[in-house]
Amino acid sequence: MPSADQSAPSYDELVVLVAALHGKLDAVPADLTEARRQAADAVEALTQATAEITELRARLKKNSKNSGKPPSSDGLAKPEPTSRREKTGRPVGGQPGHPGSTLALVADPDQTIAYGPVCCRRCGDALLLAQVVGFERRQVVDVALPAGRTVVEHQLLERECGCGTRTKATPPAGVDTPVQYGPRVTAAAVYLYSGQFLSKDRTATALAELVGIPLSAGTVAAMATRAAADLTGFLTAVRDLLAGAEVVGAGETGLRVAGKLHWVHCARTDKLTLVTVHPRRGRVGITAADVLGGFTGTLVHDCWASYAAPSRPGSPRPGPGPPA
User: Fold this and answer.
1) Three-class HEC string of the chain
2) What's the predicted TM-score (pTM) here?
3) Interaxial angle between packed helices 183-190 and 217-229, expressed in degrees from 0 to 180 and rounded to the nearest 10
């Protein structure tokens, strides 16, 4: 009978080996559970980190155009334009061939008023009964109340004197051209453009559609410029009333003028509001508003340091009172 292989493990050794393998197999589920828990923790941490990164990126992209942040928070970095309109390279304004909206005389005015010269411009003789030899037409296009367009024609009669001299009547005040817009048209255009913040084009479109009076964007801008030039006395009165008020609220916020950072300064009461624009935010900009230098009442503000000192150097009265 052949001898047993001396290299083969004995029965006892096999028993020990099987027991050891069973021990290792018993430990596998516990190790697998721990590995799964660690993987789940890693996934959760990665998800949280991704959310935080997304939020931080969104914060970095926020500016005054896409959030409630004030323009002053943009600093000197101008936000990128959000318009997707491609540049055409054409100049700004009306293009060649674009139909204009020039104001013209109408054939059937709603009202006609004739003016006759009183006396001859050369010899001074009376012209009340003299023959009418011609007239000049001037029309004022205005808004008809409650709505619509009205045209008043002013005819400047020309009479011929016995001496052969012709004299034409003098037009009424404010009727300076053959055809022009009336004061109510100007008031409506300035109100929509400056008061309701419509664009020049939308202001012109609104008046054309609402009352049938066509205007160009350039006319709207010219009306606003003329109206602003006539506010000198009004602004002086508003400044004096604000300076003498018992309580005034003041503040400032940033905006861009011709691509550069400027500051809107505001001084107001419950009935008066003065808004000015200046390149500086601090005392220089406050001084330019010309309200708080002599103010002695209670000033309501956000504790910006420049409000705590006189804003008009050399003012005979003390500076702003304590903040409320």
Assistant:
1) CCCCCCCCCCHHHHHHHHHHHHHHHHHHHHHHHHHHHHHHHHHHHHHHHHHHHHHHHHHHHCCCCCCCCCHHHHCCCCCCCCCCCCCCCCCCCCCCCCCCCCCCCCCCCCEEEEECCCECCCCCCECCCCCEEEEEEEEEEEECCCCCEEEEEEEEEEEECCCCCEEECCCCCCCCCCEEECHHHHHHHHHHHHHCCCCHHHHHHHHHHHHCCCCCHHHHHHHHHHHHHCCHHHHHHHHHHHHCCCEEEEEEEEEEECCEEEEEEEEECCCCEEEEEECCCCHHHHHHHCCHHHCCCEEECCCCHHHHCCCCCCCCCCCCCCEC
2) 0.53
3) 100
Q: How confident is the model at residue 80 (pLDDT cuts 50, 70, 90)?
A: low
pLDDT of residue 200: 94
Percent above pLDDT 70 for the chain: 84
Q: Rounded CA gap, 247 and 321, in Å?
A: 10
- For 213, list phi and psi in degrees, rounded to 5: -115, 110
Average pLDDT over residues 94-120: 85
Mean pLDDT calculated for residue range 14-28? 73
- Binned at pLDDT 50, 70 and 90, residue 316 comes out as very low
Amino acid identity of residue 182, one-letter, is G
